[in-house]
Design a protein that fits this description.
Layout: H1 2-9, H2 24-41, E1 55-56, E2 61-63, E3 68-70, E4 75-76, E5 81-83, E6 90-92, E7 97-98, E8 103-105, E9 117-119, E10 124-125, E11 130-132, E12 137-139, E13 144-145, E14 150-152, E15 155-156, E16 170-171, E17 175-177, E18 182-183, E19 188-190, E20 194-195, E21 200-201, E22 206-207, E23 215-218, E24 223-227
Parallel strand pairs: 1-4, 2-5, 3-6, 4-7, 5-8, 6-9, 7-10, 8-11, 9-12, 10-13, 11-14, 12-17, 13-18, 14-19, 17-20, 18-21, 19-22, 21-23
Antiparallel strand pairs: 15-16, 23-24
């Protein structure tokens, strides 16, 4: 039984192998949860969409689903909310996993709709993430992300001291995260930032500027600590 289930999982993750210490009761419970997640994934059929092996936890909600596009084996944890109120929608690649209680939201306002969110293939993002897409958010293939990631591709204007900040509009540049990045837990990334391929961001960092490929960064605000190439 374990070998059969392992083969099935390897369709989504070719490198997956059960730990030898895994007991049968835990395996049965895991299978039970995945079966129900797959059944919940079938609800997108009501919107004339192909589930493509989608796995949905309890309480997953979509808004403006016609602008949500996804590849094979999308996995959304319990209570995830995905809102594609946007110009260019939300795109999930193959084998994307978003942890429980996360929010994937392009826009929250009807008067200044945001751009897009694009998440590449084989991306795993931990629980309680907030992924905003007002000025566009792009996350490259094969990124791994800890809990509480927060991305904000938008800034409020505040220069006029005689006018309430909320009435001064916003600026939007967008956020781009390259391929094969490792982002620790509780990282915040602000508008205009570009992170190069293969970079690592330490837990708790606040990233306010861009960094090139293979950077290892950390701090508040984040700075270059070293590079993976030892340059």
């Amino acid at each position: 039984m374990k070998a059969i289930i392992q083969k099935i999982i390897q369709f989504r993750n070719p490198n997956f192998k059960f730990d030898e210490a895994l007991n049968s009761r835990a395996l049965f419970q895991f299978i039970w949860i995945q079966v129900w997640n797959m059944i919940r994934g079938l609800k997108v059929l009501f919107f004339l969409k192909n589930p493509k092996g989608m796995l949905l936890g309890t309480g997953v909600t979509f808004f403006n689903i016609s602008k949500i596009h996804y590849g094979k084996f999308l996995r959304l944890g319990n209570q995830v909310y995905v809102s594609a109120l946007s110009k260019n929608g939300i795109q999930f690649g193959d084998n994307v996993s978003i942890g429980a209680f996360s929010r994937v939201i392009v826009s929250t306002s009807l008067n200044e709709i945001g751009d897009k969110i694009c998440i590449g293939n084989n991306v795993g993002i931990g629980e309680f993430a907030y992924l905003g897409g007002a000025g566009s958010l792009e996350i490259g293939d094969d990124c791994i992300v800890g809990q509480y990631l927060s991305c904000h591709p938008e800034n409020h204007n505040y220069q006029d001291i005689t006018t309430a900040i909320r009435h001064q509009g916003v600026t939007r540049k967008g956020i781009k995260i390259g391929k094969n990045c490792w982002i620790g837990s509780k990282v915040t990334i602000l508008d205009g930032v570009e992170i190069g391929n293969g970079s690592i961001i330490a837990a708790g960092s606040v990233v306010t500027k861009s960094f090139p490929e293979n950077s290892i960064i950390g701090g508040v605000p984040a700075k270059l600590l070293k590079t993976r190439t030892h340059e």
